Amino acid sequence: MSDLDPVATPGLLLASLETPTQTKAELAELLFDRLGLNKRESKEMVEAFFDLVGGTLAQGEDVKLSGFGNFQIRRKAPRPGRNPRTGESIPINERQVVTFHASHKLKAMVQGGTPDPGDFE
Prior knowledge:
The protein is built from four helices and five strands. The chain is an alpha+beta fold. The longest helix is centred in the middle third of the chain and has 20 residues, at 39-58. It is 37% helix and 22% strand. The N and C termini lie far apart (52 Å). The protein has two domains: 22-61, HU Protein, Chain A (Irregular), CATH 4.10.520; 63-115, IHF-like DNA-binding proteins (HU Protein, Chain A, Irregular).
């Protein structure tokens, strides 16, 4: 078998299917490159954005980003659960979860469509 055979190299197939992620540092670098902000300002702007979104969600409010999508807080009612190892019944407490719903414009871009100019302004 060749060195690149997924069967001969465990994890190779899985690694090739993973989606690359965009880090905060990379977002700050994009602001630096495209807008001409200095690196400190770029990093602070990215941090401020995520602090604002996270803080708003923590207060129980939804976040709507036009042309991108909506982050919403959803209340999940308490329910019975079970330990899969022992089969023992355990209660799952009421909780709040964050959900994300992509906008039609974002979905179209992901599917390979071209958004209209100004969709993200």
